[in-house]
Amino acid sequence: MKAEIISIGDELTDGKIQDTNSSWLSRELGDLGIRTLYHTTVGDELDAIVDVFRTAVSRVDLILATGGLGPTADDLTREAIAKAARVPLIRDDTLLETIRDMFKRRGREMPLSNEAQALLPFGATAIHNPNGTAPGIDLTINRTFPEGEDTRTSGLRDSCRLFAVPGVPAEMKEMFRGTVGEALQHLIDDHAGRKRVIRSRTIHCFGIGESQAEAMLPDIINRNRTPRVGITANAAVISLRIMADTPSEQECREQIRETAEIIYRKLGDFVYGEDEDRLQDVVCRKLKTAGQTLAVVEAGTRGLLTGAIASGDGAEAVFQGGLVLAGTPDIEEMIAKTFSLWDVDIVLAVGPYGPSGQTTVAFAERPPAGASGPGDSGLGRVVAEAFPRTGHPALIDDLFVRRAMDLLRRR
Questions:
Q1: What pLDDT is recorded for position 52?
Q2: d(Cα 368, Cα 379) in Å, to the nearest integer?
Q3: Rounded to whole angstroms, how far apart are CA atoms 165 and 136?
Q4: CATH for 280-409, among 3.40.140.80, 3.30.160.250, 3.30.50.10, 3.90.950.20?
Q5: Tens-digit pLDDT profile for residues 240-290
């Protein structure tokens, strides 16, 4: 099944906000075994939106559209879908009452403009929006029209399924995970002519390059393999996505389990987590399990390490604070100063150190009471690694932050 994602709004074409919905939807569709062939972005102009929808209808099986479902004059998605499908807009009185009730529950009177949100293209079903007033639209559009026109791409069925949801990410995601996701599973089974179970699992690695990982898994990264494994690289994180498509849940999970075991065995400690895991999540969870606390200190990374750790899963139980310094202080002095400010078990640090042009990532443990640390530093065990400060200026600080967290993860 082929899909197209359409993002609607002047704020997107003007570059005022970034379209994160499309990438999220593509990943979700991929997990269902649906291939996204096109991402299309269009501004708030009715004829342009209609053209985009008609083009999509002619070349894919599934359209997911976001944005343009609000109550204002520049929210044109409803009208554009109706024109593209050559059907009228019809007011749904039940839907209108639902919208009115939502305003009542919030202690507000519904503005007259919100009545537009109760208009649906003829033949469409409303998609419930539990977090907002804008319902979505579910419509099957015929590719062959009364005039005899048929512009579809060869091999496609007689109709195309379209789902339109609000552009607000939180609303879009909940509607997709609920009503839209359920409808898509039925659509997938219908297209396949059988019950299909599609599952995926993504394994994340750090400290290894994409080509090195592929070389260590020569029989895994193979397009003809079952289950399929794809490899991607983003911000020095290598992700291996296992995708199984079988008639049964048990068979699906077994295929994924066997492949995951091979990846873990081959890549070893390069693997740090799965699916939604970030390095800071893994670090915070490990510290929480160990009952240990952490503070961080950094120089030259603009507070990024502090922000990353603070956002980790369970950080509130382990993270005590961060110190951001200017200049090029000695890294052991940075660590000692941090221990003096917070009563923590571990300090994680990034800072200039060693030969010119290098940056060090390090962690230190607080020595037991009454014990002296190595040398005259007064610190417990210190583990440090130095790296040349090379790479793109916009990315290098993030890389050192990840290196610091990975060093602590491997502890």
A1: 98
A2: 10
A3: 4
A4: 3.90.950.20
A5: 999 898 888 899 999 999 999 999 999 999 999 999 899 999 999 999 999
Per domain, the residue ranges of the chain are 2-192, 197-274, 280-409
The pTM (predicted TM-score) of the whole model is: 0.72
- Structural tokens at position 75: 């929210």
Contact call for residues 320 and 344 (beta carbons, < 8 A): yes
Residue 31's φ and ψ, nearest 5 degrees, are -65, -25
For 197-274, CATH gives 3.30.70.2860
3-class SS letters over 15-42: CCCCCCHHHHHHHHHHHCCCEEEEEEEE
On the question of a cis peptide bond just before residue 227, with omega within 30 degrees of 0, the verdict is yes
CB 296, CB 322: distance < 8 Å: yes
* pLDDT confidence of residue 376: 43
What integer pLDDT is reported at residue 374 of this predicted model? Answer: 42
Q: What is the CATH number of domain 2-192?
A: 3.40.980.10
Listed as ranges, residues in the chain with pLDDT below 50 are 146, 372-376
In the numeric block, which tokens belong to residue 39?
A: 């991402």
- The closest of 130, 164, 205 to 52, measured between CA atoms, is 164
